[in-house]
Amino acid sequence: MMSKLGAWGRRLFLLVWVVFALLPAYWALSTSFKRQVDIYNGPKMIPFVDFTPTLDAWQRLWVASQSDFLPKLLNSFVFSAVSSLIAVVLGAFAAYGLARFEYRYGAYRNDDISFLIVSQRIMPPIVSVLALYVVYVQLRALDTAWGMILAFTSMNLPIAVYLLRSFFAAIPEELEQAAALDGYPAVLRLVRVVFPLAAPGLASAFMLSFFFAWNDFLFALMLTFNKAQTLPLYISSLSAQSQPEWALIAAVGMIALIPPVVVTLVLDRYMSKQVLVGGVR
User: Fold this and answer.
1) Cα 149 from Cα 143, distance rounded (Å)
2) Are 170 and 280 in contact (CB under 8 A)?
3) Residue pLDDT, tens place only, 199-235
4) Where residue 163 sits, what CATH number does that domain have?
5) Burial of residue 10 (number of CB atoms within 10 Å: 0-12, 13-18, 19+)
6) Nearest CA to 155 among 116, 130, 128, 115?
7) Is residue 167 part of a domain?
8) Angle between the 56-64 and 246-271 helix axes, to the nearest 10 degrees?
9) Per the structure, how many domains does the chain have?
10) What is the pTM for the complete model shown?
11) Helix (H/G/I), strand (E/B), else coil: 64
12) Which DSSP letter does residue 65 get?
């Protein structure tokens, strides 16, 4: 009897938590179908009961997308995806080196080097973005696609290195030695043995990098003007008006949720992958 009560209690708790977690998303979705007067006349949450839904915001968003919205959405996705891929590839080789070889640079060892790398993310971004702006002026990289990809890559590379090192360290070296006996060169041992076993770590590093780049506001604000602007800046421009159009902002916010959700669903099967080889799970 007590076990059944405990099971129902856990289910009730999970149900309350799911409702609590999804309430902001539901609020934004319902707001995107409201008129301006409905938004300012108190909380109205139930369509056809509290308010009459309208597609005005979505229609206006489609019209606005001809010049503003779609290019910025595409910029955000391309910059985030490409920079995350580069960060994971470069970070994987750096993390593998830190996991497999011993380095000594004066008093610094592998652990010190790893902490030094991740410490670049501990530093507030505003400290580096000012110097980065001066460098970008000299390189003529302001408001360019490759400039934003480079900035996002430099931002996410330390995270990828620090995260992937533990995954590579958990893979037995005997597997690589066995592959070497089978005639695999060093690069093929990484591609066909090490990287597949580290797939959950690679997927996690890519997902984190994508999220950080997708949500970035500071780099996009300082390093872009028009052509390379991203979605967070577009949303900020909508809320900076004298009378913010909350329905339009909510519609853009709902669309902005889609790429991270899709990336999570695609990579989830790799992150939950369990590999049993030589006693390593």
Assistant:
1) 11
2) yes
3) 999 999 999 999 999 999 999 999 998 889 999 998 8
4) 1.10.3720.10
5) exposed
6) 128
7) yes
8) 80
9) 1
10) 0.86
11) helix
12) I
How far, in Å, CA of 233 to CA of 239, rounded? 10
Four-point Cα dihedral 29, 32, 38, 40, nearest 10: 90
172-192 confidence digits (pLDDT tens): 888 888 888 888 888 888 888
d(CA 216, CA 224): 12
- At 118-146, the pLDDT tens digits run 888 888 888 888 889 999 999 999 999 99
Non-local CB neighbours of 64 within 8 Å, separated by 6+ positions:
248
141 domain residue, yes or no = yes
Question: Hey, what are 138's tokens?
Answer: 């000299």
Flag whether 33 is in a domain: no
Q: Among candidates 147, 145, 152, 164, which has minimal Cα distance to 80? A: 152
pLDDT in tens, 239-259: 766 678 888 889 999 999 999
Q: Which two tokens stand for residue 182?
A: 């089978």
Whether the Cβ atoms of residue 93 and residue 186 lie closer than 8 Å to each other: no
Give which of 191, 167, 156 is closest to 99, Cα–Cα: 167
Q: Are 233 and 252 within 8 A, CB to CB?
A: no
Give residue 168's domain range.
69-228
According to DSSP H, which parts of the chain are helical?
2-31, 36-40, 56-64, 70-100, 110-122, 125-139, 145-169, 173-181, 186-189, 195-197, 199-215, 218-223, 231-239, 246-271
Residue 234 lies in a domain: no
The CA distance from 226 to 221, in Å, is 10
Could you tell me the two tokens for 221? 């604000």
